[in-house]
Amino acid sequence: MADFTLTKGGAYDDLLTLCKGAPARLSGSANAARAVEITAAMLKGAGADTVYLQPCMVPHWVRGPKEEAYYTFAGKKVPLHVCALGGSVATPRTGITAPVIEVRSFEELDRLGKKGIQGRIVFLNYPMNQTLVNTFAAYGDAVRYRVLGPSQAAKYGAVGFVLRTLSTSLNDYPHTGTTHYDTTLPRIPAFAVSTNDAEELSRNLRMKMVVTLFMKASCRTLPDTVSYNVIGEIRGNEHPDEIVTVGGHLDSWDLAEGAQDDGAGIVQSIQVIRTLHALGIRPARTVRAVMFMNEENGGRGGEAYAARAATDGLQYIFGLESDNGGFTPRGFSIGAEGARFKEFTDWGTLFQPYGVYEWHVGGGGADVEPLVRVKAVVGEILPDSQRYFDFHHAGNDLFENVNRRELLLGAVNMTALIYLVSKYGI
Questions:
Q1: In terms of residue numbers, what domain contains 80?
Q2: Quick check: 401 and 389 in contact, CB under 8 A?
């Protein structure tokens, strides 16, 4: 299986087709609909016995024309690299100009209170923790400021919110991502600013030379619309009613092509089907590849899949997700403990020649995690994390920034684990 995938695997070509044919696949968009068609055709071409669509209602947020922002410094306008956070409301048509104040934590925001925040734009400058080698741990620490920050600022009368981009690198790419508004508080426009600009803005604020900041956006939320999970499966020849799921999420943010997040996981999952079919391997249990819709700003696809799993009379035994980028694989996270976890680690030596040495008790990706409710074990592949947040939710998440060899190595390890579970169960 590994030799075929590494020499004849089509995942990289599939990624090119997906990224260039349907970039910016945000749920509800025309490109998301196009991606459904593209990946359904890919699964058929890969040799799936059955390919079908599973409907789900998804949110439909539209960014609108490119956002604008600048601050005044020594009487001059300094433009900023910004993007609206996902779900942000628009500014007034002419934009917002207001005094800007820097804070570095929610605690500092609380100390300033309404007296220090009222009528201002809050610039929340919290760098991701560079001392954490696992960059997903650093992201987990910082992401609360993106999700909750606008409402926390609005609580004290802020009129706008600007977040230092969640990235481990210094560059000019702002990174978007979902924000959640507290419905009991005013909804204020929410931007991310690039890390380079965040550093410069902070320096100039410390010099007390920055007076005001201007921000303008035209984003809006439209009514929910129908979209689809795309599902392709190879039916098991011994236990066809036991389902082994592998997948990634088909939607992506709208700033680029969604290559690492999560085109890589999509095409790796299709490669599992392609490899089994090409080698004539009929799995004992049904192997199902799922292209989940709406992971980025709602999770509706994963919920729809789990809801169906609860009622269709089938037994869902395992769900594996790839949603950490197409980098060199290092390990797997498995949502099991004790003897059940040992069933996975007993296979560990089989994976070592292909770069996987680490097995962690943890969980699955966001789309497969709901399968826990039907007593499935869930997991996710863990690639090297050092470069992921160079591209996550940003305008440089492009096909050209994915390495073919790394992508296929991930598919090798995913295929091996899915095959072993389908053959031996857990």
A1: 68-218
A2: no
- Domain boundary (199, 218, 237) is at 218
pTM of the model: 0.96
What is the C-alpha separation between 67 and 217, in angstroms, rounded?
A: 5
**DSSP character string of 260-313:** IIIIHHHHHHHHHHHHHHHTT---SEEEEEEEES-TTTT-HHHHHHHHHHTTSS
**pLDDT for the residue 40:** 98
Query: Which residues are 382's β-sheet partners?
Result: 331
Q: Which of 185, 218, 251 is the last residue before a domain boundary?
A: 218
pLDDT at 33: 98
416 in the same domain as 375: yes
Report DSSP state, residue 47: T
Residues 317-371 pLDDT 10s: 999 999 999 999 999 999 999 999 999 999 999 999 999 999 999 999 999 999 9
Residue 395 carries which DSSP code?
A: T
pLDDT, one tens digit per residue, over 86-141 is: 999 999 999 999 999 999 999 999 999 999 999 999 999 999 999 999 999 999 99
Same-domain status, 48 and 79:
no
C-alpha angle with apex 11: 5 to 15, nearest 5 degrees?
A: 165
Alpha carbons within 13 angstroms on the beta-carbon side of residue 60 total: 14
Count the Cβ atoms, other than its own, within 10 Å of residue 120.
20
Please state the domain count of the chain. Answer: 2
Q: 250 near 293, Cβ under 8 Å?
A: yes
Residues 348 and 255 in one domain: yes
Tell me: do 7 and 115 sit in the same domain: no
- Sheet containing strand 210-216, strands side by side: 76-79, 68-73, 210-216, 96-103, 121-124, 160-164, 190-193, 82-84
CATH number at residue 235: 3.40.630.10
Question: Cβ neighbours of residue 117 under 8 Å, at least 6 residues apart?
Answer: 101, 109, 153, 156, 157, 158
Pairing of the two strands 315-321 and 239-249: parallel
Degrees (nearest 5) of the Cα angle 78, 80, 86? 155
